[in-house]
């Protein structure tokens, strides 16, 4: 449900950017390191929106991958601790039976 809400919000922001861009047919001058260009405002807005989305997505995937690796490592630790606990319980049960006998 959470991912659906996020997808709807992203689509709504993109739709608003398209509406804003459609109402503004101005030509803007963009100067970058070695060149200069004239572009329509909707094209510039769409490119900037897409670039921001992609950068955010890359950072989110990096963070999620780190969390998944942490989860995997912690699950292995829990499994190892469970094995040790099972062995300790078996030793305790054996010792209890020997004392009772």
UniProtKB/TrEMBL annotation:
Designated name of the protein: Probable lipopolysaccharide assembly protein A
Q: Does the keyword RNA-binding apply?
A: no
What's this protein's function?
Answer: Involved in the assembly of lipopolysaccharide (LPS).
Q: Which Pfam families match?
A: LapA_dom
Does the entry feature the keyword Methyltransferase, yes or no? no
Q: Which residues cross the membrane?
A: 40-65
Q: Among the entry's GO cellular component annotations, what is one?
A: plasma membrane
Topology with regard to the membrane?
Single-pass membrane protein
State its location(s): Cell inner membrane
Q: What is its main location?
A: membrane
Record-annotated Lipopolysaccharide assembly protein A domain positions: 24-80
Key words of the record: Cell inner membrane, Cell membrane, Membrane, Transmembrane, Transmembrane helix
GO terms for biological process?
lipopolysaccharide metabolic process
Q: Which family does it belong to?
A: Belongs to the LapA family.
């Amino acid at each position: 449900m959470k991912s659906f809400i996020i997808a709807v919000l992203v689509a709504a922001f993109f739709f608003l950017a398209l509406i804003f861009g459609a109402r503004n047919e101005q030509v803007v001058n963009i100067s970058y390191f070695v060149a200069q260009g004239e572009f329509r405002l909707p094209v510039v807005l769409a490119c900037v929106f897409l670039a921001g989305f992609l950068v955010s997505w890359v950072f989110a995937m990096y963070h999620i991958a780190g969390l998944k690796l942490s989860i995997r490592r912690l699950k292995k630790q829990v499994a190892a601790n469970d094995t040790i606990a099972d062995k300790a319980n078996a030793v305790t049960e054996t010792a209890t039976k020997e004392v009772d006998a």
